[in-house]
Amino acid sequence: QVDVAAMVRLFGYVDVTDTGFIVAVLSIAFNPLFWNVVARWEHKTRALSQIFGSPRAACYCLGAVILVLNCVRSHCFTEAMKSQPKLEGWDCHWTYYSGLAISAVGTLFVISSFLALGFTGTFLGDYFGILMEEKVTSFPFSILDNPMYWGSTAIYLGWSLMHASPAGLLLTAVVAISYTIAVLYEG
């Protein structure tokens, strides 16, 4: 049984009409849409490979763009959190350290995913025709599907708790929804 009153009270702290909040939502939704559209376009046309002279160079350039977009998304997320009120009851050591632990687990998933996949495996190399020898089944893929996505989501959740931010929690839900849609699209 969900306590709707508690959710309404919690999200009463969030001004969803705030420009910074809207920009954060748009940047969160844009990133997976962008990389999936560009990767599928490359797969169909090989246009980026032609422009950059090779599939590997094109993949590295797309990966660099994705990294920059992720920095922009994280900045927008942080600024939206900072511009909205904290939940005073959560502004304590216990919540901060819980958020830190969740972020650490998320970081472990993201870094170990990257190390297992490599740069081209992480940044859509398969759409460029850069295929891995075999499917990666080692940690963290042995315990979780899409550990990069869920690790990233955990980082945002932890960051939100560390800042006692209801706006951050709502934005984390947007991250989770965006990644869920991306997984459905990519699958």
UniProtKB/TrEMBL annotation:
Spans through the membrane: 20-37, 95-124, 165-185
UniProt protein name: Phosphatidylethanolamine N-methyltransferase
Catalytic activity: 1,2-di-(9Z,12Z-octadecadienoyl)-sn-glycero-3-phospho-N,N-dimethylethanolamine + S-adenosyl-L-methionine = 1,2-di-(9Z,12Z-octadecadienoyl)-sn-glycero-3-phosphocholine + S-adenosyl-L-homocysteine + H(+); 1,2-di-(9Z,12Z,15Z-octadecatrienoyl)-sn-glycero-3-phospho-N-methylethanolamine + S-adenosyl-L-methionine = 1,2-di-(9Z,12Z,15Z-octadecatrienoyl)-sn-glycero-3-phospho-N,N-dimethylethanolamine + S-adenosyl-L-homocysteine + H(+); 1,2-di-(9Z,12Z,15Z-octadecatrienoyl)-sn-glycero-3-phospho-N,N-dimethylethanolamine + S-adenosyl-L-methionine = 1,2-di-(9Z,12Z,15Z-octadecatrienoyl)-sn-glycero-3-phosphocholine + S-adenosyl-L-homocysteine + H(+); 1,2-di-(9Z,12Z,15Z-octadecatrienoyl)-sn-glycero-3-phosphoethanolamine + S-adenosyl-L-methionine = 1,2-di-(9Z,12Z,15Z-octadecatrienoyl)-sn-glycero-3-phospho-N-methylethanolamine + S-adenosyl-L-homocysteine + H(+)
Name of one Pfam family that matches: PEMT
Record lineage: Eukaryota, Metazoa, Chordata, Craniata, Vertebrata
Any one of the GO BP annotations: methylation
HAMAP family tied to this protein: PLMT
Record pathway: Phospholipid metabolism; phosphatidylcholine biosynthesis; Lipid metabolism
Chief location bin: endoplasmic reticulum
Gene name, Swiss-Prot/TrEMBL: Pemt
Keywords: Endoplasmic reticulum, Lipid biosynthesis, Lipid metabolism, Membrane, Methyltransferase, Mitochondrion, Phospholipid biosynthesis, Phospholipid metabolism, S-adenosyl-L-methionine, Transferase, Transmembrane, Transmembrane helix
EC number of the protein: 2.1.1.17, 2.1.1.71
Membrane topology note: Multi-pass membrane protein
One of the record's GO molecular function terms: phosphatidyl-N-methylethanolamine N-methyltransferase activity
Top-level division of the source organism's lineage: Eukaryota
GO cellular component: endoplasmic reticulum membrane
Subcellular location(s) of the protein: Endoplasmic reticulum membrane
